[in-house]
Design brief:
By secondary structure, this protein is mainly beta. Helices cover 8% and strands 55% of the residues. The relative contact order is 0.07.
Amino acid sequence: MPYIVLSDELKINSKSKLTSTAYYTFGRTGNSNLNWNNAADPRPDYYRNLPSYSYSRDQVVFGDQATALWSANDPSTTQLDWDFMYFANSKNLATIENANGSGENLVGNRAKYIVEEYRVDPRRLGINSVYNTQLSDKLNLSVGVNGYNYVSRNFRVLKDLLGADFWLDVDQFAERDFSDPVIAQNDLTTVNKTIQVGETFGYDYDMHVVYADVFSNLDFKLGKKIDGYVGIDLNTTSFWRVGNLQNGKFPENSIGESEKQKFFNYGAKGGLVYKITGRHAIALNGLYQTKAPNVRNSYISPRTRDQVIGGLGSSDIASGDISYIVRYPKLQARATAFYTQYNNQIWSRSFYHDEYLNFVNYMLTGVDKLYQGIELGIEGNVTSTIVVSGAFTTAQYLYTSRPTATITVDNSEELLAEGKTVYWKNYKIGGMPQTAATLGIKYNSPKYWFIGVNGNYVADIYLDPNPDRRTAEALEGFVDTDPQVAQIIDQEKLANGYSVNLFAGYSYRLKGGQFIRFSININNLTNNKKFVTGGFEQLRYDASDINKFPSKYGYGYGLNYFGQLSYQF
């Protein structure tokens, strides 16, 4: 992503200067995805394609067959069947009436399956200016302004027709649910729009964010023992959506500029370092700030309309840490205790709901999180050529509130639920180890080469809990003694894991003073493929069959490596 920067430093006098920077960045990001219309879900891990689905319907023979194929890692079962998708597209001859709003019919193979790309193309123009002045031998003041104008274009592009002649740009769910065919149109300006490779379809909108910030920081010294700082921050954020397509389901609030959402926020921070001796010190830091909501989590369904979440507001953060620091020529160490509390955050996800046969938007407001724990780090020289290092952390990452859920269907403004309480309090935050350790040793040769190894261990990894399973509605029909209650509400803890990594390098000096450098890293030296690195509980949930939508897991890569060769002149 290109990044253009212009900087200027103005020295006002021997004690003051003004540093200003203007920047512009732009680029594109994209993620490929499969899409299908009036066709079976082709993903191997779709629940209907798994053995558990056959067993749940008492189809034991089919379940056993599927189990055998999965166990044998049969590609026809565990991988996408591209040949089938090409074949399905080649046999789907269709007539599209009034194609592209032309009044004429189009005959061709309408795509059942395609490869599409979700695009987010950002642009940001920003400025930053800081005035620094030395007020005295013990006081330094910084005052600055920071701001930017951010615009991202969000749209979908057709990447591959997989042998078909065209893709029809209609919402298949609205096409099924509404008798009026106009409602199903994703672009009312061109009804029955046929899409070719490289063309935009489905949705197209811009997100605008304008941010302005004023801040100051004062560094000070209290005698020879204490250094410190205090700072304050005031900022404003406004954002809005601009729709580039008029959607048939939401013709009034899908096109054009939406209402601007505006937020005023503030923050304060401070810290002290107490030097016990020249080798030992204690550091203390504290922060409190409010923060505007993230623009991407603020809209119920930005792809189709400009409707924002009810009760949208700023979150607040309180954070602090204290550290004991040791510095010797051959030994450095730090021990830190930390605490951070996030309040009033937004949680937003979209998923396909089998009961409603549609995409559902699931949004939580009032999400509070706590991160607290300790960290230890140490590095020491055993000899002039051997360095040993290690680190350890253990923590609690918890949800600390009972957030409120709002649930909507993507193709209508119907509220499936509003004000629904989610009992998330004291559940673990998933997706990260809450205990981790690493130990490494490195040999630095006087002849410009090095080699090292480090071992890593992680524990206390949890799957992030599905909010809908932690509601009163999810437990309707059960009594407290039912064994299914624990299956529904208990949080899954993953097995602990480890890895061993090897790294080495060599530098060769040429006669002219240039260097040729080579390095190689070999990760997961033991080829441990059983380590589950994370996963998630599916948001789809069926109270009548708890195991219908099992959790999904990610596994660590086996042995892998990379090398690097560089020339320095």
